[in-house]
Amino acid sequence: MRFCIGVGFTLGLFLCLLLSPVLAQPFPNKKFGQEDKFRQLEEILPTPNGYRSAAGEPGPDYWQQKIDYNIDVTLNDQDQSIHGSESIRYHNLSPHTLRYVWVQLDANIFSPESDASKTRASRGIAGRMSTFEFEAMVLRRTFDGGCKIESVTNHKDVKLATTVVDTMMRIDLGDPLPPGQEMTFKIKWNYKINNARLLDGRTGFEFFEKDGNYIYEMAQWFPRLAAFTDVTGWQHKQYLGQGEFTLEFGDYIVRITAPSDHLVGATGVLQNPNEVLTTAQQERLVVAKKAEKPVFVVTPEEAKENEKSKSEKTKTWVFHAENVRDFAFASSRKFIWDAQGHNVNGNSVMAMSYYPNEAEPLWSKYSTHAIIHTLNVYSRYTFDYPYPIAISVNGPIGGMEYPMICFNGPRPKEDGTYSSNTKYGLISVVIHEVGHNYFPMIVNSDERQWSWMDEGLNTFLQYLAEREWEDEYPSQRGDPEFIVPYMQSSYQVPIMTNSESIMQFGPNAYTKPATALNVLRETILGRELFDFSFREYARRWKFKRPMPADFFRTMEDASGVDLDWFWRGWFYTTDHCDIAIDKIEQFQVDPNSPDENAEIAKAKKAERKLSLSKQRDKPLEKRADQFPELKDFYNDHDPTKVTDEQRKAFEKFKSELSEKDKAMLESTHLYYRVSFKNLGGLVMPIIFMVTFEDGSTREVRIPAEAWRVDSTKFDTLIIAEKPLKTLELDPYRETADIDRNNNHFPPVIESTKFQLFKMRRNADDNPMQAAKTAEAKAAEAKAAEAKKADAKKADAKKTNELKASDKKEPTAPAVLENADTKPKVEAKSTEESKKKKKDKTKKKAKDGDGNV
Amino acid sequence: MCNVRLVRNFLRLSVVGICLLFASTLYAHPFHLCVGQMKWNSESNRWEVSLRLHPQDLEKALSAERSKDKPNERVSVDDDGFSDLATKYLDSRFFVRKTPLAMNAEEFKAILRSETKPDPELLSSIKWVGMEQERGWLWIHLELKQPSVQAEQHKLWLVHRILLDTVELQENTIAIDPTRTEKYSQQFRSGQEFQEMKSKSKQPIVKSSIPQGSESP
Fold this sequence. Notes:
Radius of gyration of chain B: 18 Å
Largest sheet of chain B: 6 strands, mixed
Number of strands of chain A: 31
Radius of gyration of chain A: 39 Å
Oligomer: heterodimer
Mean pLDDT of chain B: 78
Low-confidence stretches of chain A: 1-23, 805-852
Structural class of chain B: alpha+beta
Number of strands of chain B: 9
Helix content of chain B: 10-25%
Largest sheet of chain A: 7 strands, mixed
Mean pLDDT of chain A: 88
Number of helices of chain A: 23
Shape of chain B: globular
Order of helices and strands of chain B: HEEHHEHEEEEEEH
Strand order of the largest sheet of chain A: 5-8-3-2-14-18-16
Strand content of chain B: 25-35%
Largest interface: A-B, 71 and 71 residues
Strand order of the largest sheet of chain B: 4-5-2-1-7-8
Shape of chain A: elongated
């Protein structure tokens, strides 16, 4: 089959290419000048071993420590301090003998001498500063909320040597602890609780000036054994604020002594309701367990009344929690309490919310509903929620998660009204923080090292849960189009960056990984493959400690798709997606005989305008004309003239064609070669929509592997029966392509956010006015129509009268009269409408100026 | 600097302020970010600017500004005069300033510090176009008229200190599109409140930015 270039058109777009540095491969290829975007990650990921397999699951030798706590703690409402003692049983399930253990003293972050305080970046203080901020700034340098260790002893009450290193404390065990053995030791401590409104953190109190009460949200509050793992050894990276924590699983008995009029909510199941709850409260809890909707255990009115008591007596609340990696609690006399039992595939869970009257009416409406919704959706995508309790508490902490309990901040205004931002802010944050039960409270990733492993995965699931809350839910994270402004920035660090070194934390650790997983699910793998793989990851690492490689490997292992290019691009680099249409060429099969082609060529030549030089040279006298003897064969030879040999060859070619070949030769198909350029560096599937001249469309989806040899350009072929009219890259905006101006053929400059706003503003300048104008116009038209009908009636009457009078008078004047009247009416309407238009334009201009 | 009067004024503000939680402070890692897009319109000879930030952060900053005159009033995006207040605020925190070509960053920093009333000829002027809320974020749309410059004599600096003096850990980034082929982005945070505007071929900006009939200083 012969092809010849038919009408060719080229689309010139960006000429400059962003050259990717030739990185991330051990020996840079200096000849090709390109990074191998599909190079396997085995050079970067840790070598699989007996603890963690190449498939991404726990290996046959996988181990993790277990630590059980028995804690007595007293919350002092008078001076906002906490005093505790704990007995720790450490089960050494590692293959290593331990001579010392490391303990996290996270409260030390509130010491002015902590690394966190000393390295905290200060904002400029040249501008105006509220006393609130000023107080906070000074307090950070003066308030000592560090943990005061009173004693550390072994089970025989023999003092153990300790060394405190900022937020970490080493306890020398004396006798080494061999593999498979356990030991018990005790710690007594106390510290002053921080005012969480002034010294932001993940824990602290809020003071309510108008009633003199406090809400305490206590987290990271007791000396907790650091994780000891096959990957990091002791995870004793200092607590600087961003990298939250990672701990070991264990069982807890916690006795919390608080003012007797306080309500306490905590990780775990309350063991002594008879001692701390009223009969009414206990009865309501029984009702709540089987209720269809949340039930008040403590009503708003009761909470209001309780605020006045200020009891000096105390009560001790006893909680028991199994297989949790931490323990947190909240305490206040201001709490309203609602609850609803919920069955998660056989597991009976009590969903509960604690909040002050200041949080109403928002909280009783949404908080517990959002908890149950989260358990339903997350359990479907991961595993069934395994704990008996799920609590959401309102207090000073904006949003923070612990096993079975989380703290969430949004409240309505003082008058009880709230904006849609507050409403959806509350629903989203409850979904998010309850969702953290799955990642990282149960799938126990290391937050101090990799924030994205819990924040990113959880934000992705939060997005899915929000999709199921209501149509058009205003999700802030997960939609590829919404991350474009961040991806356009060149000031970024890769997702694979330590928690403390992340720049632009929100977009980096939450939004980008959530968006990446959404893209992986919707565009790369499809929902079925992705959901299976993601669920498998959750199943494999439930109550275990995964690392990034375990996630990457499991997703590939379970989906059967090599995703190394995806992890490399989205997680290890700061590349962004910007695929451009470079050019489109059109080809057509040539079925013509040599004579037909010669005619076409001749016609084309004739159509072509002579160059200026040739036109000007024409009158010149030529030497060959003066001396004809200079002319020979070549002067008369026409190279485009078809020879008999060519005719014969064509006939022979045709006669030898099979019927199939003949049909192909005679087909009228059009062939388009479309060239794409990858300007952003990130390799992504090429998705485009072709629209043909007859209006029909075709969607084409080319996998990202198209870039596997050359990651900068790719050509594809479209065979069509109809001429191509337009082509649009990424029509569904699913790749976070940062520049859509190069996504169209023929070129279309897409409006910026600014231009879209301006257009919309002009269109919707005053919808009420527009509706009024339309109404007036309709009335005008109706009146005109009525007038016309009346005129017609009058005409008919007149005609009848004329007929009746034996046509004594000529009809022309009557017709003329009608003919004159009509244009006049129209002319008037046009003038009126012009005047109205002019007035409207004037008004618009004024409004515009008014906005300046 | 903070003085006694300031402390007293803001004390009342803080009582209101501490009851509010910002959307940006939800979740375990509060962050404060302003992302923006800035595109040159060669027909209008203006920069078209869109900034996306947390509305609560801007409300906080404007409340601080207003407290000079009305200490108890808290500014809300829903207020009638919000656009006027915001324009006034943005005018002194988001602008383009020209300097002689030879001036370096340290010298420019010194100028920014010392200058109380800069010559308007050296500065861009701002025009409020409008604002809209999207999924909890606030978009602000502005037009910026650039001071007239000559490529051989001047350079341009973009000052973007929106919220940097009010909100701790605020980060501002902006994608700048001076011509179709020269996109770049810049970042601003405390201690880095300005950046030199760059363009490989300054011609398209510079040419179009000189108003007809005007003379370059």
